[in-house]
Amino acid sequence: MDDMQLNITVAKKNQNKPVNKKFVQKNNTEYKFKSKPDFSGKIIARKRPQNTGQKKLPQQIEEEPQNKIRKIHTNTNSDSKSDDLAGRLRDLSENKGKFHGKDYQLLSDDIKLKQKLKSGPWISSLFKNNPEVPKIGQKAVRPVVEKVFAGKTFSDLNIHPHSVANLKQNLNLTELMTVQQKAIPIILEGRDVLIRSQTGSGKTLAYALPVIEGLQAIRPKINRHDGIKAIVVVPTRELAVQTYELFVKLVKPFVWIVPGLLSGGQKRKAEKARLRKGLSILVGTPGRINDHLRHTHSLNFAKTGCLILDEADRLLDMGYEKDVSAIVKAIEDHKKAATYDPMALVKQTIVKKVSDNEEVEEQNETENVVETSVEHPLTKVFLSKERQTILLSATLTKAVENLAGITMQDPVFIDTSDGKAVVADSLKPKPVQEEPNQNLPEDVNNVKETSEHNTKDQARRNDQSCDSSRTGLKPFSGTNHPELFGENKNETEKITNKPNVKKTSNDDSDSDSDYEYFKVQKSLEKKPDETKTEEKSEVTEQEETSNVFVDALKTAIVEDELVLPATVNQTFLIVPMKLRLVTLCSLIVEHCVLNKKGGKMIVFMATLEMVDYLSELIETVLTGKDNKKTDSKKKGSQNGGKNDEESDSSDFEINYSEPGLVPLDLDVFSLHGSMPHETRMEVFKQFRTAKHGVLICTDVAARGLDVPRVDLVLQFCAPASATDYVHRVGRTGRAAQVGAATMFLLPSEAEFVRHLEQKRIRLRQSDESKALEALRTVAPSEHSMQRAAIAVQAKLEHVAHSSKEWLARASRAFTSWVRFYSGYPREVRMWLDARQLHLGHAAKAFALRDTPAALARRAKADPRVKVKPNNRLTVHDEEEKKRPGFEKLKMGAFGNKILNKQTSMHTASEYDSGLPPVDTYSYKKKKKQ
Ligand SMILES: Nc1ncnc2c1ncn2[C@@H]1O[C@H](COP(=O)(O)OP(=O)(O)OP(=O)(O)O)[C@@H](O)[C@H]1O
């Protein structure tokens, strides 16, 4: 109905203007209603009960709808017309098929209520018709605990004294963390290692330190021309930057070791130049490394002795197994190729001699270093044709087991959780079997978690008989991905007994727009038949693989016990849908503004559209920021100023008088995978250094990010899995610091807590009755918490309806959330069930006043919602064509292709190389010239 009413308003306003194409005015009183209105506005307001004991709302709120109604009345100016409207509304409401089943009744009620809007005072319906908040209690769950610090110091390790001093001076670190104490000695032995340790437990240093230790001990000293010795693959650009920065700090005493960064979003040319100059340690995202593998000839892994996959489960989870496998394959291929190139050896010697001469002075200076440097087996690995693989994550999934299967050789599994803390060695047979391996020296069977391991591993590595046939875990040989490398699949299957490596269709690659949505969709795609096959292969695998490593790993996965830092106070808050947005505002104010110490919090949302829209909406409302500039800037960039219909918001005039809110001093940051690279890095840096503020983000910030002083993590949308819950919460309480984590749940989602409890995660229910209290600071003139909430909601809605651009963004956010919600994986769908959603209430949580039907209509009309997102930018032209924004590739004046950078970055994900596709034709042409 509002659509129609508003269209009438528009028509009257535009009487002297050219008539809207879709709108036909027959005569002064008769109007034809178009099937797809340009916009729709709806007054979410309920009639105040006739007999109210309550005080009247402040004039401004009461007047809002009246203003609108008055306006509509003046414009329609005819009773017969409103009768006509009523009749048309009836027609509309009879079209039940458009509405979702039981929601129909609610919708028709809504229409009826709107008809009554024509008279009487109205109030916001924020506190009406909300479901009751259940008290679900708490089960007695004993969480798994991990001891964070080991009680030993870095000087207890067998590492270079300069490293120990550097850690103290530059990083202020002296005491070892448990994972570091267990992992560093084993990594220094050159063994393949899989590490599971809770979030914030210092895993990065646990692998970075021994890698540097191994490299610094190489004599003659390595230089940047000696090739890439170690590769660190991480899932996000931010994590890549963070890891690279740590390496830069760690190599300070060893200036001849050069770390380098390859993450998405930067210029390919600059990175190529950096690669040409030479690097010792390469840190990067899988997409970007792969891109350079294809297009940069100077990138060579022939000398790579160590491959590290941080957040290994996520690397695989996102369907980047192909990228990771391609990197592994490249290392093997380059190594093989180097063996057959005698010239390479000569060249290398020459370069070395030259650089050795150059470094004579430096060597003299560091004579002491030479004397005191300790040689480790890892150093030998760096000098040999071997490769060490290290996988790390705070959570283990089946995918990690598979990844271990394809990339590791005789691995050691390190789990630091109390009670089942293990250092399980694949070379150590099961005690029950009592069959020590005859092929190995005796001591190999008694590997302990001390640094007493010796070069036996080297011997073991050279001993061909001691690999996969015994452990059941196959080293990667490219045979695991015949489709990638064009090998015969059947033959491959005969050769390898590698189990169910998750096959993800990379051709269709992951979504960008809301990759989380596609992540959950992916798990839905798994057919029952596939599951059966998986189970079968699991059984076969179990029969074939029986060693300590495999058993320990399997136990860790099967038990699925998730570990969270004990210092994090975990709670959940059951909030009815309509109150979610104001409650979020309230918590932000409470934590970041009212907290005298200055709080820093992270809010996780489901989709990037939500992040984009809600972060700006909240900032605008709470800080009183003038968003006009941003609006027009965005309009300009997103529409290219072409879509006049959308950009002309002058006919969208609903004059609500604004409730008086006090602007607050609040810093709002937003982060998601499709932001332009520079903005993204800037936001990340700013939030890291900020003393207080809120970061609203997608799961792109859930992995590995180490932001100091984050004392609250808020999950505005329930995570898609318990694993995601762990990583999100893990952004606080790092390195044994105190932190808090809370999660919003709808009354219908309350039992989701039980799912988490099954994984030994303990949460306490928060009292929702005080959750809105902080809003009284924002609306001090209101005499109750509820009134303040109504005032804030009114303002939020006012801003959301202040222009067509805002409204379009709101609708996109809403639609993306609905899509996300209906795609929750099967494991959690019984608690996070889309059928339980009240979409009308949900719209309110996005400050929208439309009916779900009107929202659906708007989404249908929005081309940006229609396009299936695709986050791959590189490699195949076919993939490129599927990408939204491809049509933005325009032909330039000289027939050259012009890529719309804005669009390109909008679809870039943190998993991408972030580069435009290489135009092979013009590239070849250039080369010829
Ligand atoms: N020995 C130590 N003593 C004190 N603090 C440390 C030590 N080692 C690392 N840290 C600090 O602990 C924090 C977390 O480290 P890191 O980021 O490596 O954790 P993580 O285990 O990789 O976490 P996640 O699983 O979330 O990626 C960092 O701020 C780091 O500086």
UniProtKB/TrEMBL annotation:
Q: Is the RNA-binding keyword given for this protein? A: yes
Q: Which Pfam families match?
A: CTE_SPB4, DEAD, Helicase_C
Q: Does the keyword Aminoacyl-tRNA synthetase apply?
A: no
Which stretches are tagged as biased composition: Basic and acidic residues?
Answer: 445-464, 484-496, 516-539
Signal sequence bounds: none
Name of the top EC class for this enzyme: hydrolase
Regarding domains, what does the record say? The Q motif is unique to and characteristic of the DEAD box family of RNA helicases and controls ATP binding and hydrolysis.
Q: What protein is this chain from? A: ATP-dependent RNA helicase
Query: What taxonomic classification does the UniProt entry list for its organism?
Result: Eukaryota, Metazoa, Ecdysozoa, Arthropoda, Hexapoda
